[in-house]
Amino acid sequence: MMLDIHGKFGAGPARVAAALLLAFAMVLAIALGAHAQSSVRPPSNAVTNVTKPVGGEVPGNALGATSDGEVWGAIRHGESGKVTIPDGYAATLIQSQGQDWRLLRDNFIINYGAMLILAVIVILMAYFAIRGRIPISGGRSGKVIPRFSLSERVVHWFTASVFVLLAISGVILLFGREFLLPVMGPEAFGLVASAAMQGHNLFGPLFLVAIVAMFFLFVRGNGYKLVDLAWAIKAGGLLGGHASSGRYNFGEKSWFWLAIIGGLAISTSGLSMLFPDFAVETVAPLVGGGMAGRELLQWVNIIHAVSAVVLIAVSLGHVYLGTIGMEGALEGMTRGTVDENWAREHHDLWHAEHEGASTEDVAMAEAKAAHGEV
Amino acid sequence: MTFLEFTEGPMWYVAATVFVVGVLWKVIGLVRIGHKPDIAPPKGSAAGGFLAGNIRHFFPRGLFAERTWMHIVGGYGFHLGLFVLLVFAAPHVAFIQERILGFGWPALPRWGFIVAAEVAFAGLILLWVRRISDPVMRLISDWDDHVGSWLTFIVMLTGCLALQEANDALRALHIFFVNGWLIYFPFSRLMHAATFFLSRGYTGATYGRKGMTV
To answer: Where are the domains of chain A?
Structure first.
C-alpha cells in the first residue's frame, strides 16, 4: 500500500519547517550535553568542602594516610579486614602463606622427594649388582625356629598391602602433575589422578588402624638396648666383625619406630585433610596459638608429603633386604619360621634364647609359630 | 560403540545371563541330588534343624572363637560391607532401578558408602593375608580361592576408583570387571554365596531329624 503523504499522513510546508526546527534543536542539545560530560573539572567559581591533602595524606582521605599501593600490599601479605558473615576466613582476601606453601611443595618437596626416592632405587640396584644376594653363612641348617606369630604376620602384610596402595596412589598425586602429565596428556592423567585420589582417600583411614595394630603387636623387643649401639657402630657388620643383636637389630628397631611415628604423622595429617573442617575446629586452637585454619592445613599437607616420601624411600630398603637382598629373611614373614643358621648369624642373642625351639619338623614349627609360640 | 556401551550393553547381558543360568543350574542340581532315605523314625524336625543349622552357624562357637577371631572379624567385615555396598551404594541403586528392576530404594549417603567400603576392604585384605599366612589355610587353598579373592578385590577397587563418577573410562573398567566376576561366579568357589544356606541347612536338618541340638 502506498502512503499518501499528501493526504492522511500528508504535511504542509509549515509542518516540514517545524520538524526541521525540532531536529536542529535535538542535535544542538546532544552536542552541548556531550561537551558538558567531557569535562570533570568544577567551574573555577564552584564552592567545595574538599580540603587539600597535607603531610602525605592521600587526596580524598577516604582511607586515611594509606595509598592504594600500601593497602593492596598489606592484603597481599595476609592483612585481614572485617566481615559479618559466619566464615571468618573470608576477611582475609589473600592468604599469603599459601604462596609459601606452594613454593615449598613445588620447588622443594616434589623435586627433592623424587630425587630421594630415585636415589634409593639406584643405590639398591647398584648394591645388588656389586654385592648380590647376601647368603646364609654356612648354608641352610635344615632346622627352623618359629619367629613370627600368625597375628604378627597378618598385621604386617595387612599394613604392607595398604601401604603399597597408598604409596602408589600418593606418588601419582604428588609427582604426577610434574612427571606423568607431560607424558600421558591431560585426559589420561585426569583419569589416573581421579582414580588415585579416590583410592588414596579410601585406603587412608585403614592405614591408621594398621599402624596402631602394628605398634601393639611389634613393640615387644623393639626397645633400644646397649647392644644396639655396638650394632650401629659396626654398621650391622658391614664394617667388619660380627654385630650382635636380639630379636630385632638396630636397623629393624629404627625402621619400626620410623614406621610408627611416620605412619601416625601421615595418618593424622591425612585425616585432617580428609576432614578439614573438623581439623580446623579442633586442632587449630590447640596448636600454633591462633594459627589460621588454612595455614594449619598447609602445614599438615607438608607434614603428610614429607613423611610419606621419607617412609616410601626407607621402605624400599626394607623391602629389598626382606626379599631379594638377603637369603632367609622373607620366610620369617611368609611361613613364620627362620632357618637356624640365619637366626644365629643375624640375631645371635635371640637365637641363644630360642635354640631349644629349633627343629627339623618344619610343619610343626610353622604350626607353633601360627599359634603364637614364638 | 564405545567401551562403556559395550560393557553396559552386550557384555553385561551375556554376563548376567551366564550368572543367573549358572547359579540356578547349580542350586537346582544340588537340591535334586536329594539324600538317601533315612528309615529310622524321626526324633525331631528336619525343617527346624535346617533353620537352626543356618542360624547357629552365624555365631562362632566359644571353643573356637579365640583361635578364629581373624576369620570372624574379617569374614563378617567383608561380607557385610560388600552386601551394603552392593545393595545400598547410590550408583548401584540407580543401576538396579534403571537396568534391572525398574524401581529403587533409598541409597546410602556418601559417608555411609565410605564406611562400608573401608570395612569391606579391611575384611577382604585380612582374609586373603590370613589365607597365605596360616599354614593350614595355605595348604587347603588353591588357585580358585586366590582368583576369586583377587577378582572380588579388583571389582571393589575399580568401583571405588570410579566413585567420583566423572569419567566414563573408570566406570567402564568397573563394569568390565563386574561382568568378569559374574561370569566366573558359577564356576568357582564364589558360588558359596548361593549355596552356603544349603550346606548349613543340610547339616542342621540331618541333626534335627535325629533330635540333636545343632
So the answer is: 102-132+150-335
pTM of the model: 0.81
Q: Where residue A86 falls among pLDDT bands split at 50, 70, 90?
A: confident
Identify which of B122, B161, B166 has the shortest CB distance to residue A206: B122
If you ran DSSP here, which 8-state letter would residue A142 be given? S
Rg of chain B (C-alpha set):
20
Contacts of B157 in chain A (CB under 8 A): 199
3-state class of A371 per DSSP? coil
- Which ipTM was obtained for this model? 0.86
The answer to whether A322 and A329 have CB atoms below 8 angstroms apart is yes
What pLDDT digit, counting tens, does each position of A2-35 carry?
Answer: 434 444 444 456 666 666 666 666 666 665 555 5
- Nearest Cα residue in chain B from A331: B133
Nearest by CB to B161, from A151, A195, A334: name it: A195
| Rounded Cα–Cα distance for residues B106 and A306 (Å) | 42
Beta-carbon neighbour count of residue A111 at 10 Å? 12
B206 or A36, higher pLDDT: B206
- Residue A195 touches chain B, beta carbons under 8 Å: yes
**Looking at A275-284, B117-126, B139-148, which range is the least confident one?**
A275-284
Distance from CA of B162 to the nearest CA of A (A): 6
The CATH-assigned architecture of domain A102-132+150-335 is Up-down Bundle (1.20)
Pick from B117, B125, B160: CB nearest A158: B125
Name every residue whose Cβ is closer than 8 Å to that of residue A224 and which is 6 or more positions away in sequence: A250, A253
CA dist A26 and A81 (Å) reads 50
Residues of B with CB below 8 A from A203's CB?
Answer: 121
Average pLDDT of span B158-185: 93
Question: How many angstroms separate the CA atoms of A80 and A89, rounded?
Answer: 9
d(CA A229, CA A249): 10
| Chain B: closest CA distance from residue A192 (Å) | 9
Q: With contacts defined as CB-CB under 8 Å, which chain A residues touch B126? A: 154, 158
Q: Do residues B120 and B157 touch, judged by C-beta distance below 8 A?
A: no
What does residue A145 show for φ and ψ, rounded to 5 degrees? -125, 130
- A335 contacts on B by Cβ (under 8 Å): 135
